[in-house]
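Checked the freezer inventory, then went back to the computational side. Two predictions to log before the end of the day. The first one is the construct we discussed on Monday; recording sequence and tokens without edits.
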Amino acid sequence: MPKPGPVPAASSSPRDQDRLVAGLVNALQDRISTGDIKIGSWIRQERIAQEYGVSRTPVREALRQLDALGVVEIVANRGARVKLPSIRDITEAFEVRGVLEGHAACLAARNITQAQLDVLRETDGIFREAVRHARSGGEDSRAESRALWYRANDAFHATIVTACGNRQLQLTLETLHHRMPRNLTWSALDGDPRLLEENAEEHVRIADAIDRRDGERARELIMAHTQRAQELILLRFQEP
């Protein structure tokens, strides 16, 4: 993952400082979203500053902004900890995501290009490979299954959102995705071949509807897909 450049010199403009902080916010959000920085873990300012070659000042500001976004929580005299979403957070986020992604799918059915449709179709093979690795068993196969699923899932949903052609919708969904780590969905699927295959089939049906230019059906399917992910995550949260 690209890292922000070194901290600007003291004479740099406030705009340079703002860009540096924004770069740190985006990088940390991405690492939290992918599970590289795990939910519940502490983020140490000194370590982040060293990793990105910056001073602690922009790191502190980046963490403050992440706290305002609800991604981390700042604990007095302790530092910043990646926030575990509450059941209410998950429910509300997935309800909003379903509506917004449903609208994006409806628009994509009108605007999508053949090249973008090809990307949607190509993800099916990657999803199937993820299922195959999950069935193989073993830690290495499970890790490969997870990596393949992330790759396919990211490409599929990003392509639909891009194809919708609505920039404000894209930005809103990007913010929402950053607030709800994607590894939550993987933890709910838990490398279960049956659930992964079900998930792959849902993606195929969505792609079929978009390919047929049936926007309303695409909307219905992606909303159901999002609701299913929400249900699985909540079930996992409620396990003893």
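The second is the one RB wanted added to the comparison set:
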Amino acid sequence: MEECERRERILDAASTVLQECGYHAASMDKVAQHSAMSKRTLYQMFNSKQDLFHTLVSSRLFNVTAPFCHDITDPARELTDLLLALGEIILRPDRMSLIRALITESQESADIRQILTSLRCGGRDNVLTSWLSCYVHREGYVVEDVAMYGNMLFGMTIGDLMLQSLACASEASWIERMMRPRFECAVRIFLAGFGQAEATPGG
């Protein structure tokens, strides 16, 4: 088995153990058992339990990648397609189950709160911010904090459906149906107002 396959199997097991047992009881022994890997293998790939769960949360929820063209020709369509690609990953039922578990555990576990805080502070280098940086350069805007606008757009689109799913346990099929029309509308509003707030035409 390739190392990347072992890594994904371990992360899948860590997600399952977290949801079934909670963070405090999610020992490396239990993760090893669920992954059918030895505890030694786990420690060869992850320095500690916190490192393992940091990697789990980072790879499944924060460092999500989707392809996009740096040579922007149709901003509204390309940004909508990028958000749809991200939404299809982040809003999957297994990812939503992980988010629910993290919300629950963050109230009890300082480790989980620290993981989420460290990732949030380091979450500026992501595919959505990268696309917006390309767009800002293309339009000649001067924007001090592109990541802030990326966070706003995420909240208008994926974050909105995520909140509805968490609050109402919305079916995956409903989310899939709502993604495109909502994202297209949000992107039109966002791009129309993007150059009006803190962004000003550059010289």
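For RB: The two ends are 55 Å apart (CA to CA). The beta strands are 141-142, 200-201. Let me know if you want it refolded.
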